From TrEMBL:
InterPro entries: KR_dom, NAD(P)-bd_dom_sf, Sc_DH/Rdtase_CS, SDR, SDR_fam. The keyword Oxidoreductase applies. Residues 8-186 form the Ketoreductase domain. One of its GO terms (molecular function) is oxidoreductase activity. This is 3-ketoacyl-ACP reductase. NCBIfam families: PRK12826.1-2. It comes from Advenella kashmirensis W13003.
Length: 249
């Protein structure tokens, strides 16, 4: 099925990480151009080298998404190369788990700043470009944790906030031909997770608690993002798509 992403330009924050790389790979497979935006230059270089080897058109830009000036420069570099940004994926984020009574203010702000402030900076920088083109797709990577997880008050609050951000943005931007949706992954098998001492236990728990009895794969998330980025999803906006294998509570 042709998703209509050929020659479209996708700007992916946290693009050098596991999920970002999977999304970038899928966009390239669909014939699109990809901007890998990340705070880690070494990781950007590695990701771009691998993606270029696949035969894709890739640009790596370094930016801390909590810094609006760095974001503006990254967006400027992307538009200088491809003149437009059709798809923005606000994927940058991380968890710093700790029970609330033991959570530092630094860990609280770090998680919310990257997830929420980062999405604010990146969307505000890209949206005028999409408005001028009367077309765009904004996809925010939330998490099943928006429903709440013990030890993740910061992460859950950030992801729940991102969903509210998505809904409001959808209402504001639809008249410009721009859609805004969120993707909420469940437990995804990443290299970092596979290194955990309880990885086998997590796998078995997923098999017993999830209707689709397995852990998720980064490609599962990438496929959903690709659909929401496509022209086929032009009447879908303000939604949160759970990629959890059916696990919610």
């Amino acid at each position: 099925m042709d998703l209509g992403l050929k020659e479209s330009t996708a700007f992916i924050t946290g693009g050098a990480g596991t999920l970002g790389f999977a999304m970038a790979t899928r966009f390239l497979q669909e014939g699109g151009n990809v901007v890998i935006c990340d705070a880690n230059q070494e990781a950007i270089d590695t990701a771009c080298e691998k993606l270029t080897a696949l035969g894709g058109s890739v640009l790596g830009v370094r930016a801390d998404v909590t810094n609006k000036d760095e974001v503006a420069l990254a967006v400027q570099e992307a538009t200088h190369k491809w003149k437009k940004i059709d798809v923005l994926v606000n994927n940058a984020g991380f968890a710093r788990d700790r029970y609330l009574t033991k959570m530092s203010e630094e860990d609280w702000h770090a998680v919310l700043d990257v997830t929420l402030q980062g999405a604010f900076h990146c969307t505000r920088a890209v949206l005028p470009i999409m408005m001028d083109n009367r077309y765009g797709r904004v996809i925010n990577i939330a998490s099943r944790a928006h429903l709440g997880n013990p030890g993740q008050t910061n992460y859950s609050a950030a992801k729940a906030g991102l969903i509210g951000f998505t809904r409001s943005l959808a209402l504001e931007s639809g008249k410009f031909g721009i859609t805004a949706n969120a993707v909420a992954p469940g437990v995804i098998s990443t290299p970092r997770m596979q290194q955990r001492s309880d990885y086998q236990e997590l796998t078995e728990r997923a098999k017993s608690n999830t209707p689709v009895a397995r852990l998720g794969d980064p490609s599962d998330v990438a496929a959903t993002v690709a659909f929401l980025a496509s022209r086929l999803a032009g009447f879908t906006t303000g939604e949160t798509v759970h990629v959890t294998g059916g696990r919610y509570a």
